[in-house]
Amino acid sequence: MKIIIAGAGAVGTHLAKLLSSEKQDIILLDEDEERLESLNSNFDLMTIVGSPTSIKGLEEAGVKSADLFIAVTPDESRNMTACMLASNLGAFKTVARIDNYEYLLPKNKAFFKELGVDSLIYPEMLAAKEIVSSMKMSWVRQWWEFCGGALILLGVRIRENAELVNTTLIELGANEIPFHIVAIKRKQETIIPRGKDTIQLDDIVYFTTTKKYIPYIRKITGKEEYPDVRNVMIMGGSRIAARTAQYAPEYMNIKILDTNIERCNRLSEALDNKILILNGDGRDVDLLLEEGIHNTEAFIALTGNSETNILACLSAKRLGVAKTIAEVENVDYISMAESLDIGAVINKKFIAASHIYQMMLEADVSNVKCLTFANADVAEFIVKPDAKVTKKLVKNLGFPKGFTVGGLIREGEGILVNGDTQIQAGDHVVVFCLNTMIKKIEKFFN
User: Sorted alphabetically, which Gene3D superfamilies does this protein's record hold (predicted)?
Assistant: First the structure.
């Protein structure tokens, strides 16, 4: 597949690295020659210095034969223009990064498609939705719903009081259990577990289950004492913060702290008056105490500085906040954030890349998600008639190592999968695999 990525910023660079590891034909287009130099020498991709809104630049990049054109520069209008030009010059499919929510409204989809923009992605909105999902479950590191909640993914840190500590998957499976363990993150290693694998202290364990059994998983992981989130403090008045405040349930009381008075004023005008905007530094312990940090169940750090966000969450943890979430855009800091046990991590690059990645897959995929802490992906495949997975029982399909089926949704009902399960056409099958394996296993679902 020939893919042109316009914009060698954070999202474009991460996406180019991810796709180049899969031996895709990647061309990265940017006007900054210095930014491209290091990528050209370290990764299997081609870089071209040029403007994504220049017809000549697009032609030099070979846009006429591009299967996918992705515009992810920081400028929304340039991305839209680049996609329109690329489409008219022959690109098969285009994707534009935007920061205007109105463009995403269903009534505008056909309009943009006519212009030559097939898909729109708003990373800040996706990040905000992920934060809100995480806040709804204070005891969960990651939370993801499939088919409107018919099947649930939960990522949970295992502590001393968990019933599962030092238990093998074979021992768990001796009784009928209403969940499936699909991945384990242990220090720097990600494990797609088998029967002999043991759950250990401080593992992050990823479960699939149905809504009915969430309280049971909460019990066996020792998380019943975690308070539900009612009071939320957000440090940093970014677009993600504003969207998080808008998407949060009405029962949550939200305070946003920002050091910039002009930004505070803009937030006050844009947001509901029930959301309190404070001009102050979220690292100021006296201010946090004054604003009731001891009665706060969730602290979210969303400044533009990863180190600041990590340190602020550490401070909030020490002040007794049960749930902390940090925006960490520097990928190198994510493992550090995990080792410091700061809580959940949000990374716009991973979120954007996951959504763009699913557009590349030939199988019918409705969801792809990168697990931030784990070197693994989760995808929701819609099974086609006569697909390979419909021919045999799961245990006889010969799935590769590093891959597992987490469950399926049939006629709106979530079903856990075992070796004797027969997958049918039309099923939504949730799969887990180590990074870069999705392309290898999609052939089972075509």
Answer: NAD(P)-binding Rossmann-like Domain, Regulator of K+ conductance, C-terminal domain
In CATH, the number for domain 2-121 is 3.40.50.720
Neighbours of 396 (CB within 10 A): 10
The pLDDT value recorded for residue 235 is 97
Gap between the Cα atoms of 378 and 191, Å rounded = 14
Q: How far apart are the first and last CA of the chain?
A: 17
pTM across the whole model? 0.80
Q: How many residues does the chain have?
A: 446
pLDDT for the residue 373: 53
CA-nearest of 50, 57, 71 to 117 is 71
Q: Report in angstroms the alpha-carbon separations of 60 from 3, 4, 17, 116.
A: 14, 11, 21, 20
Mean of pLDDT values over 158-185:
89
Is the predicted pLDDT of residue 18 greater than 80, yes or no?
no
Helix, coil or strand: residue 162:
coil
Region(s) of the chain under CATH 3.40.50.720: 2-121, 227-321
Residues of the chain within CATH 3.30.70.1450 domain(s) are 144-220
The answer to whether the CB of 94 falls within 8 A of the CB of 116 is yes
Q: Across residues 300-305, what is the average pLDDT?
A: 95
CATH 3.30.70.1450 fits 144-220, yes or no: yes
| Close Cβ partners of 430 (under 8 Å, ≥ 6 residues apart) | 146, 151, 153, 208, 378, 379, 380, 405, 406, 407, 408, 409
Encoded tokens for 440? 């290898």
Confidence of residue 436 (pLDDT cuts 50, 70, 90): low
Q: For 112-117, which contacts have Cβ atoms below 8 Å and span 24 or more sequence positions?
A: 115/80, 115/84, 115/87, 116/83, 116/84, 116/85, 116/86, 116/87, 116/88, 117/80, 117/83, 117/84, 117/87
Structure tokens at 200: 């250990």
